[in-house]
């Protein structure tokens, strides 16, 4: 009986060390989806005539946030527009990768853990990870607010 438990322990260690074929295919599919996303973004950017009116985030809100810094005196008109578009694309990529993570886990509901997993697994999102003094890396504790909810406030 100990022999069977030893074999299962060895099999578990091997499966953790070497990804399965389905895991490799899932990773390849994720990379393809992200590549398609950026190709679509590039095509969209090349075809936009009026950049300012096609944004989901308001450049005036971005400008207001930029002005909260005491060192900022003047802001070029293009800066908030470009920063709004960059934030929009960042949010879309993070959401896409999180959605793919949820699908990989056989779920159709996106959870905070999906976003956290993507942040921890993707090199592009390393700036969102705080390194603790004891050597552990964890995503920044940023609350996720839901539009229209109380979000713990009374």
From TrEMBL:
GO biological process: regulation of transcription by RNA polymerase II
Entry's localization field: Nucleus
Signal peptide: none
Keyword Transcription: yes
Gene Ontology CC annotation, any one: nucleus
Keywords: DNA-binding, Nucleus, Transcription, Transcription regulation
Pfam family, one: CBFD_NFYB_HMF
InterPro entries: CBFA_NFYB_domain, Histone-fold, Transcr_DNA_Rep_Reg
Ranges for domain Transcription factor CBF/NF-Y/archaeal histone: 57-116
Entry-linked SUPFAM superfamilies: Histone-fold (SSF47113)
GO molecular function, one term: protein heterodimerization activity
Family statement: Belongs to the NFYC/HAP5 subunit family.
Self-association state and partner proteins as the record states: Heterotrimeric transcription factor composed of three components, NF-YA, NF-YB and NF-YC. NF-YB and NF-YC must interact and dimerize for NF-YA association and DNA binding.
Function, in words: Stimulates the transcription of various genes by recognizing and binding to a CCAAT motif in promoters.
The protein's name: CONSTANS interacting protein 2a
Lineage: Eukaryota, Viridiplantae, Streptophyta, Embryophyta, Tracheophyta
């Amino acid at each position: 009986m100990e022999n069977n438990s030893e074999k299962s322990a060895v099999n578990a260690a091997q499966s953790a060390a070497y990804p399965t074929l389905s895991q490799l295919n899932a990773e390849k599919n994720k990379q393809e989806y992200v590549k398609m996303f950026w190709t679509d973004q590039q095509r969209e950017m090349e075809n936009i005539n009026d950049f300012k009116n096609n944004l989901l985030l308001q450049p005036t809100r971005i400008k207001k946030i930029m002005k909260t810094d005491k060192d900022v005196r003047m802001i070029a008109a293009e800066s908030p527009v470009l920063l709004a578009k960059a934030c929009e694309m960042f949010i879309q990529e993070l959401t896409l990768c999180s959605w793919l993570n949820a699908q990989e886990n056989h779920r159709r509901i996106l959870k905070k853990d999906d976003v956290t997993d993507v942040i921890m697994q993707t090199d592009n999102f390393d700036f969102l990870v705080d390194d603790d003094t004891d050597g552990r890396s964890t995503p920044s504790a940023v609350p996720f607010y839901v539009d229209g909810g109380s979000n713990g406030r009374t």
